[in-house]
Write a structure and sequence with these properties.
By secondary structure, the chain is of the alpha/beta class. It has 12 helices and 14 strands.
Length: 399
C-alpha cells in the first residue's frame, strides 16, 4: 500500500470492541448488529460452491482465498482471489525472493513517531502498518495519509489486488463522511488521498458517498488538499462528474497496466478504454469551472514491453492526464499473478524521463512507488524527492 492509509475516526464507544475486526491488510470491518444484518442479507453457511466458509472468522484465522461471512452478513473471498483448487498447486509457483533494491530502511523520525502516537491514542488502524508498507517511514514523516472509503470488500476481483471480493449488497456506513473529516482533523493533514473499493452493487457506484466524504473533509479542514482515487464507475460519466464537482483538488483513476494486459490483470468489468474515457471526462468537465489535476498509475513487471509502456503514456497524455506514478508490481499471494520481471531503478528513471518529455507535469517513478506515494509532492517536480535520498537513491545503494 502507498502513503498512510487510515480509517475513519470518531467511532462510537459501542463499536469500540469492533476495533479488533480488521483484516490482514488493515481494512476496517465495520460493526453492525449481527442478528439484524443476517436477516437483512444472507444467512450464514458452511460452504459456498464447494469452498469452505469461515463464519465471521477472526482476521488472523482466515486463509487467503477462503470465503467468510463479514460482520455485515454477506460473504467475501479473503484477498480477492480463490485459492487454487488442486492441493499443493500453489507451491508450484512460489512468490520467490525480491531483489536487493526493493529493501527499505526501518521507519523512524519525529514525524513518524508523532503519527504513530496519534494512531495509538485514537485507536486508528492503518493499511501501511498492517501491510508492512515499505514507504511507511517517509510517508508518516511527511504526514501523508490515504483514507479507504466504502468498506473492505470490493465487487471486483482484479488478479493483482489483495482486497477481499464479494457483494456488499448496498451496505454503506452513513457516518463515514463525518468520521473521515474527523480523522483528517486528528491527523492534522495538509494533503489527504481518498480511495475506495469498487462498489458495482450501488446504483451510482458510490459516487454520491465519495463526494459527501470530500465535502465533509473540506468543510472541517478547509486548508487540506484532497485527492480522490476513485473506481471507474462502470464508465458512467455523470457519476464521474458527481465526484469531480465535490471540491476535490486531484482526480485519479488507475489504468494499472498496458492495453494488452488489461485482461487478465484487471477484472472483466474494467477496461483500458473505459479508464481513459473517465480520465478524459474528468479533465474536460472541470475545465469550464476551473481546472482540476488528473492522475493515474501504472504497475510494471507484469510482462509489458517498452513499446507498450510508451504507447500507454501517449494514450494517457492524449486523455489529458497531468500526473503519473510508475511502480513495481509485487505479487500479494500465490493465488495472484506472478511477477514477470523486476524493473531496475535506472529503468524507472528512464521511463520517468520519457513521461516528462511527453508533457506530464510530473511522473513519480521507482520500484517502491505506489499510486499515492508522497502525493503531496506531485507538483514539486523532483520525483517526490526520490533523487534526494529517497527510495531511488536507496535502490541504487542496494543494487
Amino acid at each position: 500500500m502507498d502513503g498512510f492509509t487510515a480509517f475513519p475516526a470518531g467511532i462510537p464507544e459501542s463499536r469500540a470492541a469492533s476495533q479488533s475486526a480488521w483484516n490482514g491488510v488493515g481494512r476496517w470491518a465495520r460493526s453492525i448488529p449481527q442478528r439484524a444484518s443476517r436477516s437483512r442479507y444472507n444467512a450464514p453457511m458452511s460452504e459456498f460452491k464447494g469452498i469452505p466458509v469461515a463464519a465471521e472468522a477472526p482476521p488472523a484465522t482466515r486463509t487467503s482465498g477462503q470465503k467468510y461471512v463479514t460482520p455485515q452478513g454477506f460473504t467475501a473471498i479473503r484477498d480477492g482471489i480463490k485459492a487454487t483448487a488442486a492441493p499443493g498447486a500453489a507451491a508450484l509457483t512460489p512468490i520467490g525472493r525480491k531483489p536487493s533494491w526493493l529493501r527499505a530502511p526501518m521507519p523512524a523520525g519525529q514525524g513518524f513517531d508523532a503519527v504513530r502516537q496519534t494512531v495509538r491514542e485514537h485507536r486508528l488502524a492503518t493499511v501501511c502498518e498492517e501491510a508492512k508498507c515499505p514507504n511507511i517511514g517517509e510517508c508518516w514523516n511527511a504526514g501523508t495519509a490515504t483514507i479507504m472509503l466504502m468498506g473492505e470488500v470490493c465487487t471486483r476481483a482484479c488478479r493483482f489486488c489483495a482486497v477481499d471480493t464479494g457483494n456488499p449488497r448496498g451496505w454503506l456506513d452513513h457516518e463515514e463522511p463525518a468520521n473521515s473529516a474527523r480523522t483528517v482533523q486528528l491527523m492534522r493533514l495538509k494533503y489527504v488521498v481518498l480511495t475506495s473499493v469498487n462498489r458495482d452493487d450501488l446504483p451510482d457506484g458510490g459516487a454520491a458517498h465519495f463526494a459527501a466524504c470530500i465535502r465533509e473533509i473540506k468543510q472541517l479542514n478547509p486548508g487540506t488538499a484532497v485527492e480522490a482515487l476513485t473506481p471507474d464507475f462502470q464508465g458512467v460519466l455523470r457519476d464521474v462528474e458527481t465526484v469531480v464537482d465535490s471540491g476535490l483538488d486531484v482526480f485519479a483513476q488507475n489504468v494499472e497496466t498496458v492495453r494488452r494486459l488489461t485482461h487478465p490483470v484487471r477484472d472483466a468489468r474494467a477496461s483500458y478504454d473505459q479508464t481513459l474515457a473517465v480520465l478524459a471526462h474528468a479533465k474536460q468537465h472541470r475545465r469550464a469551472q476551473g481546472d482540476v489535476l488528473v492522475k493515474t498509475s501504472l504497475m510494471l513487471g507484469l510482462g509489458e514491453t517498452d513499446e507498450e509502456i510508451v504507447a500507454t503514456l501517449q494514450d494517457l497524455r492524449g486523455a489529458g492526464v497531468d500526473l503519473l506514478t510508475l511502480g513495481q508490481y509485487l505479487r500479494p499471494t500465490v493465488n495472484h499473478l506472478a511477477v514477470e520481471r523486476f524493473v531496475r531503478p535506472e529503468e524507472f528513471e528512464r521511463y520517468r524521463s520519457i513521461a516528462l518529455e511527453l508533457g506530464f507535469l510530473e511522473c513519480v517513478a521507482g520500484p517502491l512507488v505506489r499510486s499515492s506515494y508522497r502525493a503531496e509532492q506531485a507538483l514539486a517536480r523532483n520525483n517526490a524527492g526520490l533523487g534526494e535520498g529517497g527510495i531511488a537513491q536507496r535502490s541504487r545503494d542496494h543494487a
